[in-house]
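User: I'm curious what two different proteins look like when written out as structure tokens. Can you demonstrate?

Assistant: Sure. I'll show them one after the other, since each token string lines up with its own sequence. Here's the first protein:
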Amino acid sequence: MVVVAAGNEGLAVGTPANCAGAIAVAGVRHSGTKVGYSDLGPQIAVSAPAGNCVNSTGPCLYPLLTTS
């Protein structure tokens, strides 16, 4: 099993995400809708949280917080 990001161009899903056997992952906002830069198409199998800084200056309004 190979899991890959759908892409970050806001276009159709490209390689390697559209290859046979790949599991393509799209990015979604905090509200559950697709972020504008995430690629989209019928190859998408799952979605995951993505960064969503809607403001052009100052701190990010909806950051993607992670831990390690």
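Here's a second, unrelated protein for contrast:
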Amino acid sequence: MDGSVKAIHIAPGYGRPVEAVDQVEVVEGKGLRGDRYFGTRRQVTIVATGELDAAAPALGLARVPDGATRRNITVDLPALPRAHGSRIQIGDVVLEVWRDCAPCEVMETAVATGAREALKGRAGVSATVARGGSIRLGDPVRIAQPPDG
């Protein structure tokens, strides 16, 4: 499955607004430089446009705006793998999925009333950085299953 990077967002601190950027430095084992999750287990969050588009009608929206879910990377794909260890390659960067992102209460105000329910199973994934580099808007995205399966 191939796609591309549609949007990149970072937030410099917990609860701070996300900022759209054209590119970001990705540090192996750390995350996105300048983001609130840098150095934590939840290094990078990723969401697919197809999953957001599937939730939009239930929210009375034509589409969920980029950055509204506060995920770092929005990719133009129908869906993302949820299996632990699945790999997402963005340009030269390799991310490894470690868990599904559950929509939180912030979605109710950041996206729309009912977003927490509509985004269940569609709110993206958290990943760790297996190989660092830079991610830029438009970079190619390739999905691979876990190495052992």
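A detail about the second structure: The longest strand covers residues 2-10.
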